Amino acid sequence: MKRILPFILILIFFSCEKPESPPIMQWHTLTLDFEGPETSENAEENPFTDYRLNAIFQHPESGRAYRIFGFYAADGSAGETSANKGNIWRVHFKPDQTGLWTYQISFRKGANIALSDKQNAGEPINLPQSSGSFEVIPSDKTGRDFRAHGRIQAKGQWFQFQNSNQYFLKGGADSPENFLAYADFDGTQRGESFVAREGESKPQDALHMYEPHVKDWKEGDPTWQGGKGKGMIGALNYLAGKGMNVVYFLTMNIKGDGEDVWPYTDYHERSRFDCSKLDQWEKVFSHMEKLGIMMHVVTQETENERLLDDGDTGPERSLYYRALIARFGHHLGITWNLGEENGPAEFSPNGQTSEQQKAMADFFDENDPYDNPVVIHTHAWKGQKDKSLPALTGHNTLDGLSFQVDRREHVH
Predict the structure, then answer these.
(1) Which whole-number Å values give the CA distances from 214 to 225, 233, 315, in the listed order?
(2) What's the predicted TM-score (pTM) here?
């Protein structure tokens, strides 16, 4: 159900009068911004845990309804300004049907309310323009652009576009897994360990620049902060030009191989998110959508699968997954991968249990309104798969496997 580089409509609500806006297209991104409490990423009252912004979008004709998580967006332009404070609170939504839609915003405050599903938890905060409606017209996109086809969904053993029912067969790069360890992103640096482990790739001395692909950036492509991002955007253009339609990447490798990708404000932080960095990620993901490149989002790796809540889906993991869903779940081509080489192995005996794996899949099933595909990455050895996979077989919130093999001659 993901769509490529969404048309971004930003409505900032200041007064009681609804501003004039361009038409909203099916499968394009509607972004609603609201002026709320002034705060910051490091405020004593944590904006990521102690506030909860939810939106209900409804399509009266069909009866379809979506509950969408909102998020704190600093000054609303953090990707350009590197701001870590402000009063803008944001919701992304992709309408999947034409016609009239309505929305209703709930904004509440309370200790750890972001982790509560209780409708009346905490206390309400009034927002101007907390309800409204809009009309959606057909998309004008064609070609590989996901907005021409609809969201990619797992249907049986296949990926298919929601709108056209055309099949989507993945083919693309699984390396570098630390694709987001990019020097042009705010708050991106190496972590604590620079020692190569046996059997793993050697940690690089510097962040990625993708300099050979600056020449593949095209006029009109996105950048940020006066021209940053051309190397990464150009690299994606190059891959699309070679027919690739997916990129596999980690969103958190703390204590892992590279130790250079995380969504937080700091390497040691687990409950506060870097607004400017994540805004810049969004620019890249939107371009991928435009190019028809699926985001294969790997949320952790084998070395850190018990970093959050000792492997449980507790407050740290839930907050992390909610942030990913709120900021990026609207994209039309996305696979949530619960973890690289997930589960115990001889070289990594402290892996997550099958019950912990199922709990992660259940969380996405319950909280991702778009029902994007959920998979889990296996260990390479057949013997290890024989031990771990039977417990997951038939678990209905897990759509499939990211199936790793150790011998390429065993792959079609």
Answers:
(1) 16, 8, 40
(2) 0.93
